Amino acid sequence: MNQDKGVSRRSALKQLGTGAAAAAAVAASPAAALGATPAKRYAMVIDTRKCVGCHACSVSCKTENDVPLGETRSWVEYIEKGDFPEVRRSFLPRLCNQCEKPQCVSVCPTGATYKRKEDGIVVIDSNVCIGCKYCVQACPYGMRFINPTTGAADKCDFCLHRVENGLVPACVNTCQGKARIFGDLNDPDSVVSKAVRANALTVLRPEMGTGPMVFYIDADHTDARDAARLGTYVRIETNRRQQERV
Amino acid sequence: MHELHWGLPVILYLFLGGLGAGAGAVSASVLLRSGGGDRPGSGFDIARWGALIAPFPVIVGTGMIVFELGSFQAGNWFRFVNLFKVINLSPMSIGTWLLSLFILVSLAYAYTFFMKDPRPGDARHSLRKMLAWAMVPLGVGVALYTGILLGALPARPFWNSPILALLFLVSALSTGVAAILLARAIFREATHHQEVARSTYLMTSSDLLLIAFEIAVVFLFIMYAHLTIGNTEAAVAVILGGRLTSLFWLGFVALGLAIPAAIELKYVIPTLLYQKQYVMPRSIEIAVCTLVLIGGFMLRYIVVVAGQITGPVGI
């Protein structure tokens, strides 16, 4: 924040120097000057320290979005690590990352999948989607599936129908330990902005360059393939039909 | 193990589409090379077989990918027309248009040969030549885009290689040549013309060259994947000791590349080095072409499956 102010003050001084005082005033606060509401940027922070792996989020997601049996929009993975008595089990709730640069959008041949300009949520128009599964292949997080009833790709959309009406997503609403924090990153006073500022965050598979908008606090990123290298016992339980983690 | 979202219909499409596109591109370039087939040593016969083969595997393969669509399986049979309402930079969107154009042009091109006695300089000569100019880039485009389509996905490290498209292109041209030679070996009359032997020699040696090039591309594909670290190296391990190792090395490299290349070499060398009359028994010709086609299918099968059973390392 301080850095941002510094930059705008510097540019304002620079522009004042060239005599464009009015332009500087507008540049310093374009939203206020033009009376436009800034676009929202929805994000979620998941504090895994507070997650108890109860699957309330998974269940509420299924009921809220009428997700077909066998498919999952949101689920919780268990990571079991260590040798008795030094054993730790941690939980990794998973959902669509609503990426800044979604791979699924850039490969979609019909434009059925797109990132909403007004809030950054990645959505699917199931009347346009032809079910080619290209996006299913493209997602580095295995979030997408083909809904057998519509024949279209399906995934978490931050419960868009709730969020548009000022509610939080069903999984956030139902979370027993308040591990899920949802809100607008463009609003510095939102709980999610505060959580982002106050904590060290990680995202899943950052090397994919997708810029996830779902952030984790204290998440265990141990993979089954780390087990041999670490010389310890690691077991991943995905708790979804697809047993291998994607 | 990861789920297989793209199954046999997609694999068959990649194989049949490559074969048809390869046959079309080879046919048209053979025709254009001899000025529309009216120069001596024209290989007009080759061009004719290629033209008659080209559209049909592509149409069958395209039907198969429509069958694989989720919307089709859910009963929305005609939703695939949504593909034609948009042009965007998705490799699949570009491929859709290329594929449609190829099917139309290749049908028209086949029509110019579909007459009682097609020969250079006949009534459809100029139309045939014009369509041939379009067939070469369209055939290469259709053969190439499938590799680009798979290569565009960082989430599938086995596919995410720029050289995969080149591999698919070379394999498509090779299977196209094999399909032309196979069709001619099966259907031609027993008489062995000098002209037929000459054009068969040219085609067989071209196929040999293509297989040699394919071996080089496969080598580069594996070498670059194996010499890196992380996702790509872990993914390519599936053919270097993993589950698909024997299928890849025996089914594709040995059966589909090395053996047909060795047999072709045996028959091509005497003509190439000592200018002897080129003779390849029909049974050997059929066997070699069948092996090349099996190899082409194996390549698509292994690549499509390997890409889907491997993923990024770590979470």
UniProtKB/TrEMBL annotation, chain A:
Q: Which SUPFAM superfamilies match?
A: 4Fe-4S ferredoxins (SSF54862)
> Which ranges carry the 4Fe-4S ferredoxin-type domain?
42-72, 87-118, 120-149
Q: What is this protein called?
A: Tetrathionate reductase subunit B
Membrane-traversing stretches: none
Supply the PANTHER family for this chain: PROTEIN NRFC, PROTEIN NRFC HOMOLOG
Which organism is the protein's source?
A: Varunaivibrio sulfuroxidans
Query: Keywords of this protein's UniProt record, alphabetized?
Result: 4Fe-4S, Iron, Iron-sulfur, Metal-binding, Signal
InterPro entries listed in its UniProt record: 4Fe4S_Fe-S-bd (IPR017896), 4Fe4S_Fe_S_CS (IPR017900), DsrO-like (IPR054822), ET_IronSulfur_Cluster-Binding (IPR050954), TAT_signal (IPR006311)
Q: Tell me where the signal peptide lies.
A: 1-35
Which terms in the Gene Ontology molecular function aspect does this entry carry? 4 iron, 4 sulfur cluster binding; metal ion binding
Decide whether keyword rRNA-binding is in the record: no
Under the heading PROSITE patterns, the entry gives: 4FE4S_FER_1, 4FE4S_FER_2, TAT
Automatic annotation (TrEMBL), chain B:
For this UniProt entry, which segments traverse the membrane? 6-32, 52-74, 94-114, 130-151, 163-187, 208-227, 247-265, 286-309
**Which is a Gene Ontology cellular component entry for this protein?**
plasma membrane
- Entry keyword annotation includes Membrane: yes
Compartments where located: Cell membrane
> What InterPro entries would the database entry show?
Electron_transfer_protein (IPR052049), NrfD-like (IPR005614)
Q: What is this entry's stated membrane topology? A: Multi-pass membrane protein
UniProt KW keywords: Cell membrane, Membrane, Transmembrane, Transmembrane helix
Would the keyword Transmembrane turn up in this protein's UniProt record? yes
UniProt record similarity statement: Belongs to the NrfD family.
The name of this protein is: Formate-dependent nitrite reductase membrane component NrfD
